[in-house]
User: What shape does this take?
Amino acid sequence: MNSFGRIFRVHIFGESHGVGAGITIDGCPPGTPMNEADFEPDMGRRRAGKKGTTPRVEADLPEFMSGVFNNCSTGAPLTIFFKNSNTRSGDYANLVAQPRPGHADYTGRIKYNGFNDYRGGGHFSARLTTGIVAAGVVAKKVLEGVTFEAKLIEAGGSTDIDAAIDKAVADHNSIGGIIECTIKGIPVGLGEPFWDSAESLLSHAMFAIPAVKGIEFGAGFQAARMTGMEHNDPIIDDKGTTSTNYAGGIVGGITNGNDIVFRLAIKPTSSIAKPQQTMNFETGKVEELVIKGRHDACVALRAPVIVEAMAAITMADLMLIENK
Amino acid sequence: MNSFGRIFRVHIFGESHGVGAGITIDGCPPGTPMNEADFEPDMGRRRAGKKGTTPRVEADLPEFMSGVFNNCSTGAPLTIFFKNSNTRSGDYANLVAQPRPGHADYTGRIKYNGFNDYRGGGHFSARLTTGIVAAGVVAKKVLEGVTFEAKLIEAGGSTDIDAAIDKAVADHNSIGGIIECTIKGIPVGLGEPFWDSAESLLSHAMFAIPAVKGIEFGAGFQAARMTGMEHNDPIIDDKGTTSTNYAGGIVGGITNGNDIVFRLAIKPTSSIAKPQQTMNFETGKVEELVIKGRHDACVALRAPVIVEAMAAITMADLMLIENK
Amino acid sequence: MNSFGRIFRVHIFGESHGVGAGITIDGCPPGTPMNEADFEPDMGRRRAGKKGTTPRVEADLPEFMSGVFNNCSTGAPLTIFFKNSNTRSGDYANLVAQPRPGHADYTGRIKYNGFNDYRGGGHFSARLTTGIVAAGVVAKKVLEGVTFEAKLIEAGGSTDIDAAIDKAVADHNSIGGIIECTIKGIPVGLGEPFWDSAESLLSHAMFAIPAVKGIEFGAGFQAARMTGMEHNDPIIDDKGTTSTNYAGGIVGGITNGNDIVFRLAIKPTSSIAKPQQTMNFETGKVEELVIKGRHDACVALRAPVIVEAMAAITMADLMLIENK
Amino acid sequence: MNSFGRIFRVHIFGESHGVGAGITIDGCPPGTPMNEADFEPDMGRRRAGKKGTTPRVEADLPEFMSGVFNNCSTGAPLTIFFKNSNTRSGDYANLVAQPRPGHADYTGRIKYNGFNDYRGGGHFSARLTTGIVAAGVVAKKVLEGVTFEAKLIEAGGSTDIDAAIDKAVADHNSIGGIIECTIKGIPVGLGEPFWDSAESLLSHAMFAIPAVKGIEFGAGFQAARMTGMEHNDPIIDDKGTTSTNYAGGIVGGITNGNDIVFRLAIKPTSSIAKPQQTMNFETGKVEELVIKGRHDACVALRAPVIVEAMAAITMADLMLIENK
Assistant: This one.
């Protein structure tokens, strides 16, 4: 389903070129202060307009459709909506016959028997991450004393991210990147053994972000190349602090009170200006496809705030489950 | 919760040194043939006794506690139980004061206020993976025409896996490894946009396997270093076949009919014979810890069949949801 | 949570005197025809304006916020919204100090620490049933060949319903009633033993309708006064038809192919024009309360279409689970 | 699914004539004292052997399969199992051809394509209520200060229950009854508006008890015959106490701090010694059926403790959700 969480529970809806995109949050504690202006910092980080990102810019004003009264959450379902305004749907008409490589055009069409809204990716669009970022703002409010910091640590294989993006733009191509997220202030004891491990839940949320293709916690893939003696994090005080943090703050599926650290692989933007060779289902032949529309050279640039939002949504749920 | 799935739904229970370990499966279609002997091939792959694995060997005979009649599943909840027999609980008494680095001893104690069964890791033990492998056998039966192959492709940073394990045993140390899993025969259209993406669900299941610290689909972390032109998989026929498979068989969260391919980072076994320095909560000092008991030098050796089981559990659920 | 269902899954949000009320439906099969006009017959049945119902009348025009494209459902989450227009919130200001008997004013205030939107009942309002009726319209579309008929069979203890309502209006009082619902065309085999019995799910949904205080299936409470010989429904053909239907179409929690029949007790409208004696939390004394605002003399009059909607929502989910 | 609850979550499994019947409880707080002997009082109330109940008597010794250590719950899944011993499966062989009226023989066979375990009702059997009663014992432990009292207030339409049962036994017939349950000590604020109303959840649980065909809260069906002036419960103090309790302790789906009171209609036992006329699917004709085996003249006699158990399971979940 298009829902996530047990107590702090989010439901997503909307399309890229329809009325708009929104999110409903169940389980937000009543009395959480809630003003439109609180959303602007994170919405601004998500928004396009910087180098290497699409020139389509939406105002991203959150509308509280329910659950807010006198500038506080009421405890009832909280629905936040973002109207679409700046859409140019004509750009997408040719994609029905020739699905874009790397996009959900083909899988969406088969899954939904051709009834999917294909304009701008429809429900699959990154436009939907407006709602995710908004839910993240709410989740961060719920998690007093917890901080989230996600940043792009590499793009196109380089740490000179600026240069890598300039090159991609010049090449009419796109690049991926690696995002690292650190969560501070989480108590010991969140998560469950097995299916609701903290890693299971965080990864579940992270792979819901379009373009994420990998995740690793702590030492991650490097752990596979370490010995037990190297990788084990010794405990050095009675609060459970460890001298190293190769576990990334989670042991046995349960948070151990140290920083939670994970990294995500973000694939290069699928929409590129360069012509591509791919199947045309109308002609039945592999043909050249030229993608029109406005796109990011590196979606990873705008993703950190979405990563933080997903992390906050997941942690808010775990905290409320444990009453911490 | 300790459950996973919407239609084919599994519930895990048990402990390492208690009565045994088990699993209940809701939603197994009635009429699925079910004999004890069907479980032996996969149970055998999971079992200890090979080089580098613990000398504790259990017979692993599945007992059908419910849901099987006349050698077929009935459609009612199917409970499979594995009795413990070969336990030496005395080995673990000292771990209450001094939690083992890399284990859930400390996180489990805090989470459960000291009431957790600490013997052999209790409910956190890899002993519980008997039930997971058994559920995997059932899931594979449900998925006719779908194949799962997981294998260890690297251990201790080397592809000469045999030599790497010999060295770890000689060093009284342990090593991690990388497992690659390929799923063939999955139709187009499984998974949902956002939270129930095929990647979200598979990663959720995989991080429930003890020792998994990373997952990547298709090109994975390498995708972060590719350009869009390189990474996009062009479609070359009307069944959606792509000429490359950098996406690992999943686009927009939905399976695209190509092989699903993912890799897992497995950390080195946490229990090692080498002495370690870590907190003793009784004395309040960091002291030497020597772990007794019987352990694997490389848990990744026994993990492939568990990975296949988790993949099959996840795919059985998605297939039954879509009625494919 | 404010959700219901496993495959056809509904999420409710909104308030009586806020922006509006809405519903999101996950799992609606793609390609279901969807026009605003399709909703008018059932919305009209729900709407006020008839004798004994409140003079507050809303236009109840459904807005498709997501999930509809080219007049068909897309398969993505389907959100339908009803804007509020005809609100007079000033009427409710005095209810904060003196909660109305029979209403959720007091329980809502304690549950939400005083942050609930108290205007017109806020999220507890029957205004929210617009979304339920809309989801019912969608569910009925999904259930081709199944019919739902709910009707008021008794009001104020009388079958002369018209006269009973006239009297209640004249008395500045209100009355309850009994609604009977019959579902035809359901196949054998829906529902589960124990917690997801067809009766469990239907009753779960029905008690979500404001003012429902009882439910009985088939012979219901009368069954408690029958013998087994009288109550058992003999099967008389190879389709499972029974000569009597005291079971109300459900045996062992599973539908048996006969008509599903149940009755609901609807309490009298809580808001009445007559003065009532109840606690004033500001003065700390029991005092007279006079309720202003516009209210129904008999909410049971407008409830049948809501009952049908809830029945259709429940049955659509069960049908999609069983792929019937 | 065969699960219920969000935090305190139960999963049922087993069969009447298989290995046994069991229940797994997720979310039981760690440190809850847990001895076999604690279960005997409620298990004894459920057990057969009294007048009008089947002479099949099982010892009903709970076996803790997981989740208990040093006589306390650990916080891990708690599985309790009841082995079957006193079974006479031969009694049921003829029911495959000729399903018993009032039983799930026919619906179960169609639902499970003939693979269901038909012996003694298989998974549909009241034998499964052992696990429910056991979970109720655990739930009552979790709910300190809350009391549950369910009693049979009417059988066969009479309050002279003893005489009514004597008559049914003499007639080789069976009778139904009405059970009233009162829950004391519940705080204000449990339950949600709409689908997770306290009434929705309690009724969901109650209809999972075999033979329940109706439920009413407070005045219930009588409320449909009252006026608003009569039915509204005025609040008389600052704790929310009401002078009457026609609402049965729940207003707007939320508990109001007064006693929760509900009544259940229990149908007469379906298995009766009298011959019945019903379809024989082998011969294709309606024929006489004589039911062998051992059965209760009035299942309602043994049901009160099951009703209490279901109420406690539901309330434990709601309390843990609200952290009360």
